[in-house]
Amino acid sequence: MNKEILRAYFIAGPQDFPGETIDEAKLKISRIIQSGVTAFQFRDKGTVYQNDYQRIKLAQDLREIAQQAKVTFIMNDAVQLSILTQADGLHIGQDDEQLYKAREMVGNEMIIGLSVRNEQELLLAQDSIADYLGIGPIYPTQSKSDASESIGLVKLSNMLNKNNLPIVGIGGIDLAKIPELSKTAIDGVAIISLLTKAKQPNEVVNVILKHFLLE
Ligand code: TZP
Ligand code: MG
């Protein structure tokens, strides 16, 4: 897997635009996808759709927008929808579909990312078939209601000493945190609110890309 896709990794779904319609959320997500991010993860949590078709259509449209913008498209949780949209990747959590079962379902081409929340999960993940890991929440976050305790920078650095997989950091990351994070061994940052709330997403993305340079 090319680690470069993890540098500026945008995550969103309609739930991240409270009070807005699905179409309004789609438009805002599309603009951010086109702002220079390296990956987009469609994370769809608890949105009430009129029917299944509406959800599939949203996923397909965002997949297409990402493709046109040459942005890696990753589906969160939904294995079947990752196959249907021909996603570049699938991201799963510790409580989701088992890694090996997901691999069996999506085939060998698709990137699989796994969330890890602590050192124990990180160590177990080292010998797994995951292509990359998302470590977090690093800082307290407002965007995930069931987020576990934040790890903090010191613990994160210790964890990274025991890792040899591509890593994206996640959780509570704002612009002030980018310099300290870029000094650790993570390959990039995964963010929701910093981008969904940005007036100029491309300026945020430029700061991130400048700090997480290519090797
Ligand atoms: N997983 C761990 S923290 C988090 C997820 C999905 C939310 C990150 O959102 P934000 O707004 O960048 O803190
Ligand atoms: Mg999940």
Summarize the topology.
Layout: E1 8-12, H1 22-33, E2 39-42, H2 52-68, E3 72-76, H3 79-84, E4 89-92, H4 99-106, E5 111-116, H5 119-126, E6 132-135, H6 153-160, E7 167-170, H7 178-182, E8 188-191, H8 193-196, H9 201-211
Parallel strand pairs: 1-2, 1-8, 2-3, 3-4, 4-5, 5-6, 6-7, 7-8
Helix pairs in contact: 1-2
Bound molecules: 4-methyl-5-hydroxyethylthiazole phosphate and magnesium ion.
InterPro entries: Aldolase_TIM (IPR013785), ThiamineP_synth_sf (IPR036206), ThiamineP_synth_TenI (IPR022998), TMP_synthase (IPR034291)
Family: Belongs to the thiamine-phosphate synthase family.
Protein name: Thiamine-phosphate synthase
Structure, described:
The protein has an 8-stranded parallel beta barrel, surrounded by 5 helices. α1 (22-33) packs parallel to α2. The protein is of the alpha/beta class and 215 residues long. The chain is globular and about 45 Å long. α2 (52-68) links the parallel β2 (39-42) and β3. It has 9 helices and 8 strands. The structure holds 4-methyl-5-hydroxyethylthiazole phosphate (TZP) and magnesium ion. The site of magnesium ion has 5 residues, from loops. 4-methyl-5-hydroxyethylthiazole phosphate binds at residues 11, 136-137, 141, 143-144, 147, 170-173, 191-194. Condenses 4-methyl-5-(beta-hydroxyethyl)thiazole monophosphate (THZ-P) and 2-methyl-4-amino-5-hydroxymethyl pyrimidine pyrophosphate (HMP-PP) to form thiamine monophosphate (TMP). Its cofactor is Mg(2+). Residues 9-193 form the Thiamine phosphate synthase/TenI domain. InterPro entries: Aldolase_TIM (IPR013785), ThiamineP_synth_sf (IPR036206), ThiamineP_synth_TenI (IPR022998), TMP_synthase (IPR034291).
